[in-house]
Design brief:
By secondary structure, this protein is mainly beta. It has three helices and 30 strands. The longest helix has 17 residues.
Length: about 450
């Protein structure tokens, strides 16, 4: 063929360049016309009426002068980048295209490398994803993690950060898109917004579940907290499984560890339980404190945690052991063994205060049973809320709630639920002198449970 297949240059057959007066040899001239016809047939029509029958070989070109361009916009088209990569240019500006997305399932710790650019990895078990150094991965490297069955921790290399933090926890059921700047890692913030959404739009306060109980193995030193959810205003935390805390140890993260915010467990003390939320992964924990308010909780050991809400109370006896109890819905407590808070206590027409075994520092509604004896007939006793002031017992005055003695030295019984003051006290008074016994069966201490 006269056309060089490597260069595309056409050369006429020999003997087809005549001189004046020369007799034309038909053989080479017929070969020339045949070649011309073949080459015209093998040429690509400008009107597109015929297709290519072999690969089109374009010039390599550059970003400003692509090998395949357009007559009207010669700086837009295709060109060959270094390393044999195909480039796309628009008006002389390179257009980047992403790698093909690659999916893989994982069930263990994993080290994300450069070849994972654009990868989507679904983790079905607890795992830590360690990111290769940002400088090695380079700017624009990106990666998606799906936590499907357990939490996944994203751990950048060395002191590098992700969204400014040392690590990022992706809770089970969530996913995160990660991008590298060449020096650090960032996310698209969707995970953060999803986790925070319930908080930023929430109002009100409640406790769903999280009932307290004595631990079956160590009932006098350990408290169990059932699964549930807690909200106070815009703060929310939940736990999918029960948690146990020791009352005879200072606070440490996790179930089975100490629960006190400070100091050692005391005798005949009141310990208020508070739900905690870990700031970085929103996980649940509990701290126990003698403070009746969040403001009074010692937070020295609670760095990185938010106190969400008070969720219950635990009382200790004279031996610094937990009084065993049963907790019912709507924040009602019943002691396994009733407490005798008055045994033959003198009672008369003079009003006096009586301390009960209920939480200290707050008002509680005590569940009480009484017995009253007196040598005086037609005598009655009255136990009451201190908020009512000083009352007088008797039918002609403020009445009674422990019956009426009909026979000298007889006895009367009664029961009532009475609110205490913040010093655990109620008032007692009788129409005449007598003796009083009081059993405290438990109390109501409202923290906000609806069920």
């Amino acid at each position: 063929m006269p056309r060089n297949p490597s260069t595309g240059v056409y050369s006429k057959p020999a003997g087809t360049t005549p001189s004046v007066g020369q007799v034309i040899d038909p053989v080479p001239w017929n070969a020339l016309t045949t070649d011309l016809g073949n080459e015209i047939t093998n040429s690509l029509p400008r009107d597109g009426s015929a297709p290519m029958v072999a690969p089109l070989k374009a010039a390599s070109g550059t970003v400003s002068a692509p090998g395949v361009g357009f007559a009207s916009v010669p700086q837009t088209g295709l060109y060959l980048k270094g390393g044999g990569l195909l480039g796309f240019t628009q008006n002389g500006v390179d257009v980047a295209f992403d790698h093909a997305m690659v999916y893989a399932a994982k069930s263990a710790d994993y080290n994300a490398v450069a070849s994972d650019d654009a990868a989507v990895h679904r983790f079905t078990a607890v795992a830590t994803v360690t990111l290769t150094a940002a400088a090695t991965l380079g700017a624009n490297w990106h990666y998606t993690v799906i936590a499907d069955g357990a939490d996944v921790t994203i751990d950048p290399n060395g002191a590098e950060t992700i969204d400014g933090a040392a690590t990022l926890v992706v809770p089970s059921g969530y996913s995160v898109f990660i991008i590298c700047s060449g020096a650090a890692f960032f996310t698209n913030k969707v995970l953060t917004r999803l986790l925070a959404k319930a908080e930023t739009t929430a109002v009100g306060s409640f406790i769903d579940g999280v009932l307290l109980s004595n631990n079956s193995g160590s009932p006098t030193t350990h408290v169990d907290f059932a699964a549930g959810s807690v909200r106070s205003g815009s703060s929310f935390v939940s736990n999918a499984a029960s948690m146990t805390k020791r009352i005879n140890g200072t606070w440490a993260v996790g179930t089975g560890n100490g629960g006190l915010d400070t100091g050692a467990v005391g005798a005949s003390a009141t310990y208020f339980a508070y739900a905690l939320r870990k700031d970085d992964d929103l996980s649940f924990d509990v701290v126990l404190s003698t403070s009746a308010t969040i403001a009074g909780v010692n937070t020295t050991l609670l760095t990185g945690y938010t106190i969400v809400k008070q969720i219950g109370v635990v009382l200790t006896d004279a031996s610094s052991l937990i009084r065993q109890f049963v907790m019912y819905p709507r924040d009602e407590y019943t002691f396994v063994t009733p407490v005798k808070d008055a045994v033959g206590v003198s009672i008369s027409t003079t009003s006096n205060l009586l301390a009960l075994t209920v939480p200290n520092g707050v008002k509680a509604k005590a569940k009480l049973r009484f017995e009253f004896t007196s040598s005086a007939t037609t005598n009655a006793a009255l136990l009451s809320d201190t908020a009512q002031g000083v009352l007088a017992a008797g039918i002609g005055d403020d009445g009674g709630n422990i019956g009426t003695i009909q026979v000298a030295s007889g006895f009367a019984i009664g029961s009532q639920e009475i609110w205490t003051n913040t010093s655990r006290q109620i008032r007692r008074v009788a129409g005449a002198s007598g003796s009083l016994w009081v059993w405290t069966d438990g109390f109501h201490f409202p923290c906000g449970r609806n069920a």
